[in-house]
Design brief:
Blueprint (H helix, E strand, L loop, with lengths): L4 E6 L5 E3 L12 E5 L1 H7 L2 H4 L31 E3 L1 H7 L3 E6 L9 H14 L4 E5 L3 H13 L2 E7 L4 H9 L3 E5 L3 H15 L2 E2 L8 H15 L7 E5 L4 H16 L9 E7 L4 H8 L25 H10 L3 E5 L4 H12 L5 H15 L8 E6 L25 H4 L2
Parallel strand pairs: 5-13, 6-7, 6-9, 7-8, 10-11, 10-13, 11-12
Antiparallel strand pairs: 1-2, 1-3, 4-5
Helix pairs in contact: 4-5, 4-8, 5-6, 8-9, 9-11, 12-13
Bound molecules: pyridoxal-5'-phosphate.
Length: 407
C-alpha cells in the first residue's frame, strides 16, 4: 500500500469507514482519519524529518495522500517558533514563544488545511468545490483550487474583511456576499450541494483539512526536540486548529516519538463577543449551544456554532486545559502591544489569545516557568480595517519642523 491510512472513523460513535473512498460526515458530524501507526513507525524515524525539505509534506507518513502522488502545494509549512523574551517579561514568563503562522501562503494557517484537503479532492477526482467562510479559509481554498485547476464557489458574510473578498476573487473563485453569519453561508452551501452537485468544503465536513492542521502539532514537537511545551493558546472558531493539534499529540505519543509523556494544556481562546465553546466548557456540556448575537472583529472567531464542538471540548478537557474568553474591547491594544514589543504583526484572533494569557497570569493559572506557545494564526496585514489610523501629514512644499517631529 502506498499510504498509511488504515480507515476513517466517526468522531461521534466510532463507526468505521474504509480508506480510499470519498467521505464526508456521519450523522452530520466529522470523521477522524486513522493511520496504521505501526507501519508508519517502521517506515520513518523522527530524526529523518530534518533531512527533508521544510514543508509540512515532510510528515508524509502521517498524511493521507498516497506517496506516489504530487500534492497541490504553495510551499507551506515549517513556520518559525519565535522566542519572545521582551514580551515574556511583560507577562512575567521566562519562556514565551509565538508560532508564527502568518508567514504561510495566503497569510494564515488555513493554507495547511487546504493543501491536504485540495490534494485529496484532486485524488478523488472532484472538480467543483464550495465553501462557507469567515474569510481566510475562502481565500486559501481559492488559491489552492486555482493551482489545481478546480472551480470554487465561496460564500462569506458581507462584513468579511475586504482582503479576503479580494484574494478569493483574484484567484478566480465565484465569491458571494451573504447578509448573515458563516452558519447562514453554511446552509447555502449545503442546500446548493444537493441541487448543483458541488462538494461541501465546510470546516470538518470533509476529513482532510484537519490532517493538514495537525501538522502544527507535529512541527511544534520537532521544533521543541520531540518534547512539547506546557501550555498552548489557540484562537478557536471552527476548531480545526485545536482539534488537529490534539490529534497530532496523541499520534506522536502512540508512535513513541515523544521524549516526555506529558502533553500540553490546550487553552481555547474566544472573544467574549462569540464564545460558544467557553460557555459549554464552563457548563460541563458535551456539545455547545449556538452563541446568540455573535459579533467580533476577529472574523476567524465569528463562528456561533461548530460541527466539531464536542471534539474541541474533548481535546481541551483531555489535555487538562480550558476554554477562556478574551475581551473584544482589548483586541486592537494587544495587536499594537505585541507588534511594538516583538515586531510580530498578529491578527485580531491572536490578540484575543494574549488577553487570555493576561487573564490566566493574573489568576495564577500559568506558572512563570511554564513554556507557553501562542499561535499567531494570521497576518495583521489581512485586517487593515481593524486598526484606527490618524497619521500626521507633511507638506513637501513647506519647511519641516524636525524638532517638533521628533519630540
Ligand atoms: C480560521 C481562523 C481561526 C480559527 O481557526 P479554527 O480552526 O476555525 O478554530 C483563527 N485565526 C485565524 C486567523 C483564522 O483564519
Amino acid at each position: 500500500m502506498n499510504h498509511f491510512v488504515s480507515h476513517l472513523e466517526s468522531a461521534l460513535d466510532g463507526t468505521v469507514f474504509p480508506a480510499g473512498q470519498l467521505h464526508t460526515v456521519h450523522q452530520g458530524r466529522p470523521l477522524w482519519v486513522r493511520y496504521d501507526l505501526d507501519r508508519a513507525r517502521a517506515a520513518v524515524r523522527p530524526e529523518d524529518f530534518a533531512a527533508r525539505p521544510p514543508s509540512l509534506w515532510r510528515y508524509r507518513e502521517l498524511l493521507p495522500l498516497p506517496l506516489d502522488e504530487e500534492p497541490v502545494t504553495l510551499g507551506e509549512g515549517m513556520t518559525p517558533l519565535l522566542p519572545c523574551q521582551r514580551l515574556g517579561q511583560e507577562f512575567g514568563l521566562d519562556h514565551l514563544f509565538i508560532k508564527d503562522e502568518s508567514q504561510l501562503p495566503t497569510g494564515s494557517f488555513k493554507s495547511r488545511g487546504m493543501t491536504t484537503a485540495v490534494s485529496m479532492a484532486r485524488h478523488f477526482g472532484l472538480r467543483r468545490l464550495a465553501i462557507p467562510t469567515a474569510g481566510n479559509a475562502g481565500g486559501a481554498l481559492a488559491a489552492y483550487a486555482a493551482r489545481a485547476g478546480m472551480e470554487v464557489f465561496v460564500f462569506m458574510p458581507e462584513d468579511t474583511p475586504r482582503i479576503n473578498q479580494i484574494e478569493a476573487h483574484l484567484c478566480g473563485a465565484r465569491v458571494f456576499l451573504v447578509n448573515g453569519l458563516i452558519t447562514d453561508c453554511g446552509r447555502i452551501v449545503r442546500e446548493g450541494g444537493a441541487r448543483v452537485g458541488w462538494f461541501d468544503f465546510s470546516t470538518l465536513k470533509e476529513p482532510y483539512r484537519l490532517e493538514g492542521k495537525k501538522t502544527m502539532g507535529l512541527e511544534l514537537a520537532e521544533q521543541f526536540g520531540w518534547r512539547l511545551p506546557d501550555v498552548i493558546l489557540y484562537p478557536t472558531g471552527g476548531g480545526t486548529g485545536l482539534i488537529g493539534m490534539g490529534k497530532a499529540f496523541h499520534e506522536l505519543r502512540r508512535l513513541g516519538w515523544l521524549k516526555v509523556d506529558r502533553l500540553p494544556r490546550l487553552v481555547s481562546c474566544q472573544s467574549d463577543g462569540c464564545a460558544p465553546i467557553v460557555r459549554a466548557f464552563e457548563a460541563g456540556e458535551r456539545f455547545a449551544e449556538a452563541f446568540p448575537n455573535a459579533h467580533t472583529i476577529a472574523s476567524g472567531l465569528r463562528v456561533p456554532s461548530a460541527v466539531g464542538d464536542f471534539m474541541m471540548l474533548d481535546a481541551i478537557r483531555e489535555s487538562g486545559g480550558l476554554a477562556l474568553a478574551g475581551r473584544e474591547a482589548r483586541i486592537v491594544e494587544w495587536m499594537q502591544r505585541v507588534a511594538r514589543t516583538e515586531g510580530v504583526a498578529i491578527c485580531p484572533e491572536t490578540a484575543v489569545c494574549f488577553d487570555c494569557l493576561e487573564l490566566l497570569r493574573s489568576a495564577g493559572r500559568v506558572d512563570p516557568k511554564d513554556e507557553v506557545v501562542v499561535f499567531n494564526t494570521g497576518a495583521a496585514q489581512k485586517y487593515p480595517e481593524t486598526v484606527p489610523l490618524n497619521l500626521p501629514r507633511l507638506d513637501k512644499d513647506r519647511p519641516i519642523n524636525y524638532e517638533a517631529l521628533t519630540r
